[in-house]
Amino acid sequence: xxxxxxxxxxxxxxxxxxxxxxxxxxxxxxxxxxxxxxxxxxxxxxxxxxxxxxxxxxxxxxxxxxxxxxxxxxxxxxxxxxxxxxxxxxxxxxxxxxxxxxxxxxxxxxxxxxxxxxxxxxxxxxxxxxxxxxxxxxxxxxxxxxxxxxxxxxxxxxxxxxxxxxxxxxxxxxxxxxxxxxxxxxxxxxxxxxxxxxxxxxxxxxxxxxxxxxxxxxxxxxxxxxxxxxxxxxxxxxxxxxxxxxxxxxxxxxxxxxxxxxxxxxxxxxxxxxxxxxxxxxxxxxxxxxxxxxxxxxxxxxxxxxxxxxxxxxxxxxxxxxxxxxxxxxxxxxxxxxxxxxxxxxxxxxxxxxxxxxxxxxxxxxxxxxxxxxxxxxxxxxxxxxxxxxxxxxxxxxxxxxxxxxxxxxxxxxxxxxxxxxxxxxxxxxxxxxxxx
Length: 437
Known about the structure:
By secondary structure, the protein is an all-alpha fold. It has a domain at 138-431. It is built from 21 helices and no strands. The chain has helices at 2-42, 63-74, 84-95, 110-116, 124-150, 154-166, 168-176, 180-195, 199-208, 213-216, 220-225, 229-250, 254-265, 281-286, 291-315, 321-324, 326-339, 351-356, 373-383, 385-395, 403-431. α5 runs antiparallel to α6 (154-166). The longest helix is centred in the first third of the chain and has 41 residues, at 2-42. The chain starts with a helix and ends in a 6-residue tail after the last helix. The relative contact order is 0.10. The model is unreliable at 54-58 (pLDDT under 50).
């Protein structure tokens, strides 16, 4: 009896220490996030907060061209969206009185301008504040809708969201005014709708997230292999409405201009492209091969990944419901990042969604959940991923090689292997003959 009481007391003390550590980490993460927001918003008092090195007139925050997209939609002029001089002219309009001579390039499809149009109702500083508060909040809420299914402990949920927000990709998204939290909101709501049979929600938000074509196209594979026809219908309806509004306002000509524009700039190393700094197959290959060849390798790997994902999604129909969605979706997320032809640091925040639907605790101890080696490696990398992103970023000062790209590649491989193990496990179970008395 005394031994049992002592063991219970030790267990209680361990839980208490774990709760204190988690609380401390959460407070530390929140402090860092608030510091970054204070710096970012504090700079808005300067004459031109989105231009680096004002006296030399060089360097732009990504927010400039993203905000300019909404202004282009609201303007009367319909031509010249996808040419560099016109984009430079728009950049200079929104950052006036500052001037730049090398703009960031608008690499989004025409309907992205439609999505950005509401923000053009405000000046660039006001719009940045709204943008930087709105999408992180909605992104974290969308993550919470998914993570609460696996992490039942509220302290684990808060710690998870805090660590996601304190990761370098998340804070970089805020600092640059990037679109990664907007896309995370769309894809996380789509996954939540998928897992809870809210297919209308999933279809609509997946269509709204189609401005990142390099990731969204891969989601056609699960929709088709699982025959999610209602989801597909609502996605087509939403996308059609979005494109119709875009054509009504901007005309049809911008649609054929867009792929030509991308083809002309993708391997050029132009501002905003930088294949050497990408955290994917293209970024890794770029350090050993020419930009053109690295893009060709990226395309080859992407096509192979499409075939592999299609086969695995089809084979995973035998997996029971409790595991059927989480690992295929998580693996698709990881693969979409590493095989995308365009993936920078800030988009790695999408891996928070892969973690949200697969992690069962904010702990390194995984044997009680899943004793497999692949799950242990997956858990170890993702629990440490926020810290890893900062280490990889700081290491860039020593070498330009994209270390985080290698981490993402390992994650994708581990996810695919674990997914394949699940497929084999449940297929073998269904082949076992029934035991008769």
